[in-house]
Amino acid sequence: MKSTYFINFMMGMYIFIFFAYLFGPLIIMSITAFNSAEFPSISPWECFSFRWFNEGKIAYDGQHLAGLLSDWRLHDGIISSLIIGAGVVSLSVPIGMAAAIVLTQVRSQLRDIYYSISIMPVLFPGVIIGISTVVLWDRIAGLGGDGFISDVGRNGIFLTILAQTCFISTYCFLIFVARLQRFDQTQEEAALDLGATQTQVFFKILVPYLMPAIASAAVIAFLFSFENYNTTVFSILSDQTLTTVIASKVRLGISPALSALALTIIALTVIAAVTYEILRRRSEKKYAQSQEIFVKEKAASGRINKEYKAGFKVPKGIVAILLILVFATYAATQIVKNDLYGQSCIDAADQEKKSKFLEQLQTLESNELTEEELSGGSLGGTEDYGDIFGDPSLFQDFGGFD
Amino acid sequence: MSADVELNNVSVTFGSFYAAKSVNVKINGGEFFSFLGPSGCGKTTLLRAISGFQDPSEGSVLIDNKDMSGIGPNKRPTSLIFQNLALFPLMSVSENIAFSLEVRGVSKGDRQKRANELLELIALEGQGEKKVHQLSGGQKQRVAIARALAVEPKVLLLDEPLSALDLKLRQRMRTELREIQKRVNITFIYITHDQGEALTMSDRIAVMNEGEIEQIGPCDEVYNNPLTPFVATFVGENNPLFGKVKEINQNKIKIETPDGDFVSTMNENKKLNIGDEAIAFVRPESLFLPRDGDSFDNLIDVNIESFEFEGNIKNFYATLKSGTKIKFSIPNAIDTSLISSGTKLQLGFESTKSSILPKAQLAID
Fold first, then answer.
1. Which chain B residues touch A193 with a CB distance below 8 Å?
2. Scanning A107, A206, A365, B188, which has its CA 20 to 30 A from the CA of B122?
3. pTM for the predicted model, two decimal places
4. Where are the domains of chain A?
């Protein structure tokens, strides 16, 4: 039986590595949100703090590093992302559904062509969709002079909704196609035969059947829209979404406020998933209870051998939960023991950094360069290198660059 | 409230393929009528033409003497029970049954009342709140019937609704269907490839082959006096004996085969002349072991090959002199312990119990 243990061990290792690869970065990033240092890091660990969730900090040199609560650009970005997400959901779900229903009606070779055309937007680079939307609507906005059309055509949120809908509706289309493939079309015929009109068939038979697909298409459309960058960055024009705000922050150097945001999003996602799972299990349990009588009857008739029991079961993930608890307790005790939390720790760290900063400033001042060194020194910084590109008057012929 | 259904010269074509070809049939109000035929013979197409899902390429469908062309399935006084039943899985049993009332804008109270009435009719009182998947096969069947009856259609169309059930349940549902038909007294048009179903339930049947009707008539007439070799072999079992017409008297016809001459009563509309190729048919249960004093119109020598025990009867498989294989059955009540493989026997059958038909396609293989 040695080999079985070995295989099980290797399997466990594999699963551990896989999940470490998957969730490692997320966990590290989440931890950095609680470090008071200006740059997201775990080591060196400064102090345990919630400042990046709140107000952020004003650095010793006067620079304001906003926290999650006080960063208005992030807030604006989140709000426009939410508006765009809602707009994309309300456009792409009906479009995807309509396209999928049309596909079920098309028979013959046209079907393949129609399908290919329908899924094409997924294959286009998002950048191209973004740019082409802007180009088109710029032309349209230019047609009518000032007024509604011109305003709408140059509204970044409106354009982003349209641009994202272009390809997100295709994902919705694929979800609906998958669901419709399992639809029993005789149900439509049965409803028609029982006197329903086509509209009634749609709302009483088809839509209830598609409800799960509508829900998952809406969720997926929203998530795709929320995280989209490459289309949005062009079509958003002068507005900003969450992704473009984050991208612009990365250019300037990221702060742990982003880690705080990431952790918040992760927490919301986990809560949503857990809630969904709990609700699902509850309804499943309800169904099981309705079947219980049936099962008990069968058990009484001897058809089911085992005694039927419905009771509490230990959740299988208990080991993982215990491990996380142990790790968290250990980290907490370490932080408390080394006094790495609270205002006093932060003040001390700030003090230390400030003195270091002043020290460096002093060093710089004492090493200040002379006039000569600043103007190029012995390298001859004042010399004219204009003619290394050839004739210096060449560009002046057409007025030069401005 | 029942209605006549008339198919006038109805043809349905898909491209160059005839799914149904010049079908003429008049089904009387209140009748239990079956279309019987092998799969792919066009019977479902005919049913779809009656219910309005398929427009006939030629001819017309008349229900209650009204031409139905251009009238959609939701406007016809027919209800269709689908082969897979097509119950709505997301609705409860009551909602399923009352669906046709719901789409007509009947109030909720009235709908519930009618649903309860129908649940009583199908002996499922108090089970209206169940979901469809909680029902057994036979119960689903009955719910489908109740759903179709909720609007009081004049014609009920059934597309092989029993084919998915097991044998015992199928037999019980046959009786039940027949009883429901008598109680509601509307026209039932039933489609099946199972001749047992058709014969037990129907007033009249139409046997179809390759899109055409081969014979229409009451069940016993179709069974006893088939008009074509196809009907003779499709409805029940039959032993074909190939030969040539030798003699024709007023009402008797004699055929010459390699295994001897056989006589049969002539029934009308058979265009046979002396010398024509023909087939004599005799059913397994019409072949008898002659006892002392018995005299039969026809005698035939057989060599027993094998037999099988079916319960109420024993089936024997035998070869004739020419090598033709035939089957005959003997009730279990008769002692057949002396017959085993290799036994040579002489069997007899009456001329009234066999038919001689012009040579044509058989239903077997």
1. 51-53, 73-74, 78-80
2. A206
3. 0.74
4. 72-254
